[in-house]
C-alpha cells in the first residue's frame, strides 16, 4: 500500500527502484524517497485526518513501508504543539509555539526516524543493525531493534550521558564506547563491523530516517489548522529534521495541503560545534569538519554531516539563517522554558529559545510572527548536563 514511485539521488538526480535495501547513491550522496503524490492526494486529505491514528503512521501514504505488518509502532509522532502563552507574553510574542518532542518513545524525536527506518529494515529482511550515535539515536535504535527482534550494535562516545547508555543496555543492544565524537564512532564502526550481513543506519546514509523526521512538518501544519508558520527554529546536528521538513513542505504543496509559501528555517548549533553556521556565513555549499567539537547538547555534537549541502540549501531557499549559541545560553533557556511553560527540555531544546532571542535582537524576527521552536528531547536524560541548574534559584 505504499505510494513510493522511486528513490532519487539528492546530488546526481539518478533514479533507483523502490523496495530494495539502500545506503548511499553510487555517487556517494544521500537518497530521497519520492512518492506518487497525485495518487496519495486522493486519500491523504488534511480535512479527513481526524479518524487517523495519533502517531506518525497517520501519514501512511507518504511513508515508505509497503505492508502494515512491517510497521513497528511504539506510538512515535503526533506530539503536542503547545501555545507558549506565558513565555510568549514575557517575550512580547503572541504566536509562539513549542513542538514538544519529549512525548516520543525513548524521549526524543529520534524515535520518528528510527521507527520508520527500522520498520523498513525489518520489511526488507535486514538481519543486523549498527549505528554511531551521540545519544538519542542510540536509544531509539535499540528500542525498535528490540521490537523487531533484530540484533543492534551501537557505537557511542564514552562521555555519552548515562541514561542513553543505560537504556541501550536494557533494550538488549551491544554498546561499544569510543573516545571522541560521533565521527570517531563512525570510523570505529566501519573498522569493527565485518562482512556484509549488517546494515548502517547512520544519519542520511540510509533513506528512511528522513521520512520519519519529516512528519514533524505535516503535524505542525495540521496542528495550526492548515497554516504555515512564519519561522521554525530547529537544533541542528546531522540535519535529518531540517532536510526532512523542507522536503515535507514540497510534498504538502503537491498534496494541496499548503500553497507556495514556506516557513523561514533557522538552524541553531552549539558555539563550539557549529560547522553549518560557519558554512552559512561563508556562503559555501559545503561545511568543513569542525575540529574538537564540544557541547553539553550531545545531539548537536556532530562535527561534519553528509547532508550539509541539503541543509545549507534549505536555509537559503527559505530565507532563514544559521546561528550558534553557547552552552550557558542553552542552560539558561532550559530553566526559562521550565519556569514559564512547565517543560523540562534538553539543552538542544533550550538552544532554540536562546536562538529566538538572538534572532529578535538582531532584527531577523520582529516577534509578531507565528514561530515554532522544536524541543527535540526530554531533559530527563541529561542529568549530568542539567545538574548545574539543580541548585535553588538565586544560589
Ligand atoms: C539528534 C538530535 C538533534 C539533531 O537532529 P538532526 O535532525 O540530526 O539535525 C537535535 N536535538 C536532539 C535532542 C537530538 O537528539
Ligand atoms: Zn547520485
Say how many strands there are.
13
Strand content: 15-25%
The CATH architecture of the domain at 81-108 and 211-390 comes to 3-Layer(aba) Sandwich
Question: What is the topology, as strand order, of the major beta sheet?
Answer: 4-5-13-10-11-12
Largest sheet: 6 strands, mixed
Helix percentage: 25-40%
Question: In summary, what is this structure?
Answer:
Helix content is 36%, strand content 15%. By secondary structure, it is α/β, with parallel strands linked by helices. The chain is globular and about 50 Å long.
Explain what the structure shows.
With 395 residues, the chain is α/β, with parallel strands linked by helices. The protein has a domain at 81-108 and 211-390: Rossmann fold (3-Layer(aba) Sandwich). The protein is built from 13 helices and 13 strands. It has helices spanning 37-41, 85-91, 110-123, 136-148, 162-170, 182-192, 209-223, 240-255, 275-281, 308-317, 327-341, 347-361, 383-386, and strands spanning 4-9, 15-16, 31-35, 81-83, 96-100, 129-132, 152-157, 174-178, 199-200, 231-235, 264-270, 321-325, 371-375. The chain has a six-stranded mixed sheet, sandwiched between helices. Strand 7 (152-157), helix 5 and strand 8 (174-178) form a beta-alpha-beta unit. Helix 3 packs parallel to helix 4 (136-148) and helix 11 packs across helix 12 (347-361). The model has no long low-confidence stretch (mean pLDDT 95). Zinc ion (ZN) is lined by residues 9, 11-12, 14, 25, 27, 29. Zinc ion binds at residues 9, 11-12, 14, 25, 27, 29.
Amino acid at each position: 500500500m505504499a505510494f513510493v514511485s522511486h528513490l532519487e539521488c539528492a546530488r546526481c538526480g539518478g533514479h533507483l527502484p523502490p523496495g530494495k535495501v539502500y545506503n548511499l547513491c553510487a555517487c556517494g550522496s544521500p537518497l530521497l524517497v519520492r512518492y506518487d503524490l497525485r495518487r496519495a492526494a486522493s486519500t491523504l486529505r488534511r480535512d479527513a485526518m481526524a479518524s487517523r491514528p495519533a502517531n506518525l503512521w497517520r501519514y501512511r501514504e507518504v511513508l515508505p513501508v509497503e505492508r502494515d505488518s512491517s510497521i513497528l509502532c511504539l506510538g512515535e509522532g503526533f506530539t503536542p504543539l503547545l501555545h507558549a502563552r506565558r513565555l510568549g507574553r514575557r517575550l512580547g510574542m503572541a504566536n509562539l509555539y513549542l513542538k514538544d518532542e519529549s512525548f516520543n518513545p525513548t524521549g526524543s524525536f529520534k524515535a520518528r526516524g528510527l521507527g520508520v527506518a527500522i520498520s523498513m529494515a525489518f520489511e526488507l529482511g535486514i538481519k543486523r543493525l549498527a549505528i554511531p550515535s551521540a545519544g538519542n539515536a542510540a536509544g531509539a535504535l535499540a528500542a525498535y531493534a528490540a521490537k523487531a527482534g533484530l540484533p543492534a550494535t551501537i557505537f557511542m562516545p564514552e562521555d555519552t550521558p548515562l541514561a542513553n547508555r543505560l537504556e541501550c543496555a536494557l533494550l538488549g543492544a551491544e554498546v561499544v564506547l569510543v573516545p571522541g565524537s560521533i565521527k570517531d564512532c563512525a570510523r570505529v564502526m566501519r573498522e569493527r563491523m565485518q562482512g556484509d550481513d549488517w546494515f548502517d543506519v547512520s544519519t542520511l546514509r540510509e533513506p528512511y530516517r528522513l521520512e520519519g523526521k519529516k512528519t514533524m512538518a505535516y503535524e505542525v501544519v495540521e496542528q495550526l489548522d492548515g497554516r504555515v508558520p512564519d519561522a521554525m527554529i530547529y537544533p541542528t546536528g546531522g540535519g535529518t529534521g531540517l532536510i526532512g521538513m523542507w522536503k515535507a513542505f514540497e510534498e504538502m504543496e503537491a498534496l494541496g495541503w499548503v500553497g507556495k509559501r514556506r516557513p523561514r528555517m533557522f538552524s541553531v548549533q552549539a558555539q563550539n560545534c557549529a560547522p553549518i553556521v560557519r558554512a552559512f556565513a561563508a556562503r559555501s555549499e559545503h561545511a568543513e569538519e569542525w575540529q574538537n567539537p564540544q557541547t553539553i547538547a550531545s545531539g548537536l555534537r556532530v562535527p561534519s554531516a553528509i547532508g550539509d549541502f541539503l541543509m545549507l540549501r534549505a536555509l537559503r531557499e527559505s530565507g532563514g539563517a544559521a546561528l550558534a549559541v553557547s552552552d550557558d545560553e542553552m542552560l539558561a533557556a532550559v530553566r526559562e522554558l521550565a519556569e514559564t511553560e512547565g517543560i523540562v527540555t534538553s539543552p538542544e531544546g533550550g538552544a532554540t529559545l536562546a536562538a529566538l532571542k538572538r534572532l529578535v535582537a538582531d532584527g531577523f524576527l520582529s516577534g509578531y510572527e507565528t514561530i515554532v521552536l522544536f524541543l527535540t528531547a526530554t531533559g530527563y536524560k541529561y542529568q549530568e548536563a542539567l545538574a548545574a541548574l539543580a541548585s535553588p534559584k538565586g544560589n
